[in-house]
Q: What sequence folds into this?
């Protein structure tokens, strides 16, 4: 699953999609957070909060929120935003992750605190959340000759064994990607998926003992006017169905 900040083009077409994943949010002007999950989890995941700057899902009795705190603005408005998140996560095992745009000494050494940072520190403490330590920076941007750096991407958890210690990876954005593993048990209904039958592929391509005239005959028998059409036909001729039953997910 992915929960976090999304890129939206000027024509609001949204992020790139992948055939194996479902995007669980509407793309619209002002939307800053989205969520993706593997399609076989469709029956196991429920969207419980959908705002421009906060997205929450429930899976296996646990809740995960991706956030994008507004830069600037008043502490009072920030507290109202936190309160809405709190109402959706009350008395639940919960993970809160992503860009809070808030500064506080609890997570930034030597950084000047702001009102939003104090509001976040107070709210998470009162709500029973634990801040998971991430060494080093989580955000950086160079503007002209000035390099800006901060640790505004944070992970808060409530509940035992919610997340392994999170890791981070620089992947081209000005934010580091934060990732970890959460264990939960999900009962999935049995599904059937088509996958490539590699034994059948190997058998088709085996040409030992064939004459020069016989070799490559498998390609000549493929349907299609272009090489791509023939590739699709080859794949469709080498599929098998596998059944996926209920099991524990990570």
A:
């Amino acid at each position: 699953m992915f929960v976090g900040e999304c890129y939206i083009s000027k024509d609001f077409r949204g992020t790139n999609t992948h055939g194996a994943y479902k995007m669980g949010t509407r793309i619209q002007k002002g939307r800053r957070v989205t969520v993706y999950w593997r399609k076989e989890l469709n029956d196991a995941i429920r969207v419980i909060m959908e705002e421009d700057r906060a997205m929450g899902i429930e899976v296996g009795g646990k809740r995960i929120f991706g956030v994008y705190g507004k830069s600037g603005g008043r502490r009072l408005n920030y507290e109202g935003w936190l309160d809405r998140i709190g109402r959706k996560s009350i008395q639940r095992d919960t993970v809160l992750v992503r860009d809070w745009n808030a500064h506080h000494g609890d997570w930034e050494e030597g950084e000047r605190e702001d009102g939003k940072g104090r509001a976040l520190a107070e709210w998470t403490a009162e709500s029973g959340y634990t801040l998971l330590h991430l060494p080093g920076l989580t955000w950086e941007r160079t503007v002209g000759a000035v390099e800006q750096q901060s640790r505004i991407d944070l992970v808060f958890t409530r509940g035992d064994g919610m997340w392994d210690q999170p890791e981070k990876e620089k992947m081209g954005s000005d934010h580091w990607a934060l990732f970890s593993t959460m264990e939960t048990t999900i009962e999935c209904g049995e599904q059937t998926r088509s996958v490539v039958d590699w034994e059948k592929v190997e058998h088709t391509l085996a040409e030992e003992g064939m004459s020069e005239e016989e070799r490559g005959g498998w390609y000549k028998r493929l349907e299609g006017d272009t090489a791509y059409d023939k590739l699709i036909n080859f794949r469709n001729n080498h599929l098998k169905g596998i059944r996926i039953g209920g099991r524990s997910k990570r």
